[in-house]
């Protein structure tokens, strides 16, 4: 577990990273990308997604940019998140992907 | 001019005859171009106006259409979409030219996608582009189309589709388009026949006046000869009669050609699956999967939450029997915090009843909720993955204890009959030895454990055959055990919805099959064709 107090003391938020496989039938298309960006906008943390662990990174709060990623079903979606509510954001984003955006 | 037949791809089934309505793109020219600041303000106003129009439209449509439009609203609300347009405006370009160029570049990116699904989203971007352009040009975005027409064009936007009353029998014939487009999804939901990918449409000086659309075959005939039209009208009449008969048959009890009454039950995963369904289409619910309650990030469900869901399903069934399966986690259905991670062979590990007995604190909550729900209808409870009688006996003792505890607390409750799923070959071979109130054959697992082949492993998938004589022999054995003990036997796996197996399954003596709601009409029709 991360020591959240240590984070708060330094006010430096090392980026959190994680990945999840897209399980919903047609990948990160219209409705899932809207759900993803709406969820991301609920956090102050900077949230980015990519199809590879080393980027290129895309702003997860922009539906236009998320759609440009064209992430297909079965792709591994990488997250890079930094900010005070980063851990909660990461948990929420991963839950959304694991749930197949409610479409699976 | 003779008739012209074009062949494309079916996008929404059904037949239609109607006058042709040609989609035209709105090409009104704008008055005068202002300075960059005025142009930017005009563009901003047009984008905001388009979002308001869409929001108003969302309020008037059904949920699926609303979600499609919400995607457009989200895209319009994202500054990244107009970024390039504002830059061009600042450099002196007119607002409409700048917007068109920026959106065309975005659209080109979608059309170049590998996945057809992303290509199909181009139609949504075209819709957004044209709605904003119409705002800039002060034109109406959508020409009025009569609902009995065959709409003809290169492609059709969701907005244009939603502006038409499709209950009047119209159809869609497109030169381009995609079966994966949002409009195709909407057309299937509304029952409007649609054919896409027809290629160049006839327009020798003037457009055709009448079209016959075959959304099953993916063909369109423009300006048909009288004989062609007469034959097509016969097909339309026959199709209407068949549909009316099938819909009526869905509500009738299932009976074989030689007069055997077969009970048809439903498989459901959540109460939402029952929305809009008439309980009269079935003889009850043969399988309620409860895993959905335990999935997601909500944590393990409490007793009250489970009780509310079970009660909703019993209320829907209005007295018809409802069989709820206790949690069937593990195997291919991991649940975080409950199933064991990293089991070497999860299908042969701690799953189904084995997991429930290993986690009695979780199982007890479900048993209590089931006892409370049992007072609201005809509830039966079944245990998944039973291999030996001791598992049923232990679960039965726990059910007795929870029932007694509820009664002692003065809470309304009943003890539902407890049956087993027969999906482990050991349970099928020794079915008579179980004191079960009923047997429900889970043909998916029974097949994979009998054939030692998983259906999702391509290299061995052809071995995973529910119609194999070994699997049918185990089903027959279970049916005989049920007959000897005087308890009901049903089958609730995918084999029940495989019409090629209906004959073989009924030949084992089964009289109860459980399938997903979508398969009910087809299964009843297949049963009606079974003679012995």
Automatic annotation (TrEMBL), chain A:
Keywords: Sugar transport, Transport
InterPro entries xrefs: HPr (IPR050399), HPr-like (IPR000032), HPr-like_sf (IPR035895), PTS_HPr_His_P_site (IPR001020)
Pfam families per UniProt: PTS-HPr
Signal sequence region: none
Signal as UniProt keyword: no
Residue stretches making up the HPr domain: 15-104
Name this protein carries in UniProt: Phosphocarrier protein HPr
């Amino acid at each position: 577990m991360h020591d959240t107090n240590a984070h708060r003391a330094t006010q430096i938020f090392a980026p959190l990273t994680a990945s999840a496989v897209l399980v919903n039938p047609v990948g990160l298309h219209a409705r899932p990308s809207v759900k993803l960006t709406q969820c991301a906008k609920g956090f102050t943390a900077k949230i980015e997604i990519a199809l590879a662990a080393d980027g290129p990174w895309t702003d997860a709060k922009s539906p236009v940019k998320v759609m440009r990623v064209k992430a297909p079903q079965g792709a591994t979606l990488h997250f890079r998140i930094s900010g005070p509510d980063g851990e909660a954001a990461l948990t929420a984003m991963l839950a959304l992907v694991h749930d197949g955006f409610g479409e699976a | 001019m003779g008739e012209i037949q074009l062949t494309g791809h079916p996008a929404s089934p059904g037949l239609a005859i109607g006058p042709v309505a040609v989609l035209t793109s709105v090409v009104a020219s704008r008055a005068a171009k202002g300075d960059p600041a005025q142009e930017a303000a005009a563009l901003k106003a047009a984008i905001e106006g388009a979002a308001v129009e869409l929001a108003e439209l969302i309020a008037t449509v059904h949920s699926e259409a609303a979600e499609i439009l919400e995607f457009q609203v989200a895209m319009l609300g994202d500054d990244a979409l107009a970024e390039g347009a504002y830059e061009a405006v600042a450099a002196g370009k007119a607002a409409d030219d700048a917007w068109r160029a920026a959106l065309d570049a975005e659209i080109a990116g979608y059309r170049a996608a590998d996945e057809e699904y992303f290509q199909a989203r181009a139609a949504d971007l075209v819709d957004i582009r044209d709605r904003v352009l119409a705002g800039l040009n002060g034109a109406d975005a959508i020409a009025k189309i009569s609902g009995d027409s065959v709409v003809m064009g290169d492609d059709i936007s969701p907005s244009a589709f939603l502006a038409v009353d499709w209950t009047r029998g119209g159809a869609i014939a497109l030169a381009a388009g995609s079966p994966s487009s949002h409009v195709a999804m909407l057309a299937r939901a509304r029952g409007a026949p649609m054919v896409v990918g027809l290629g160049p449409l006839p327009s020798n000086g003037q457009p055709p006046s009448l079209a016959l659309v075959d959304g099953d075959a993916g063909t369109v005939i423009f300006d048909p000869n009288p004989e062609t039209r007469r034959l097509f009208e016969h097909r339309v009449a026959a199709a209407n009669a068949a549909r009316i008969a099938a819909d009526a048959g869905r509500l009738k009890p299932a009976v074989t050609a030689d007069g055997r009454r077969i009970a048809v039950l439903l498989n459901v995963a959540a109460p939402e699956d029952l929305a809009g369904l008439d309980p009269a289409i079935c003889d009850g619910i043969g399988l309620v999967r409860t895993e959905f309650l335990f999935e997601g990030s909500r944590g393990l469900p409490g007793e009250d939450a489970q009780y509310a869901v079970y009660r909703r399903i019993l209320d829907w069934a209005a007295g018809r029997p409802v069989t709820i399966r206790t949690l069937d986690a593990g195997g291919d259905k991991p649940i975080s915090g409950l199933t064991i991670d990293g089991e070497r062979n999860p299908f042969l590990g701690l799953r189904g009843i084995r997991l429930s007995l290993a986690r009695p604190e979780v199982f007890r909550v479900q048993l209590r909720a089931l006892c409370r729900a049992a007072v609201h209808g005809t509830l039966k409870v079944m245990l998944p993955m039973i291999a030996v009688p001791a598992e049923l006996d232990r679960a039965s003792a726990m059910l007795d204890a929870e029932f007694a505890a509820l009664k002692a607390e003065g809470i309304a409750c009943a003890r539902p009959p407890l049956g087993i799923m027969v999906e482990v070959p050991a349970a099928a071979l020794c079915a008579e030895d179980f004191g079960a109130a009923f047997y429900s054959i889970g043909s998916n697992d029974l097949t994979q454990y009998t054939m030692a082949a998983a259906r999702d492993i391509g290299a061995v998938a052809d071995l995973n055959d529910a119609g194999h004589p070994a699997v049918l022999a185990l089903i027959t054995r279970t049916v005989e055990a049920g007959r000897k003990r005087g308890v009901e036997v049903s089958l609730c796996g995918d084999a029940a919805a495989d019409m090629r197996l209906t004959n073989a399954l009924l030949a084992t003596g089964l009289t109860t099959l459980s399938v997903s709601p979508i398969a009910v009409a087809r299964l009843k029709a297949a049963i009606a064709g079974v003679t012995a």
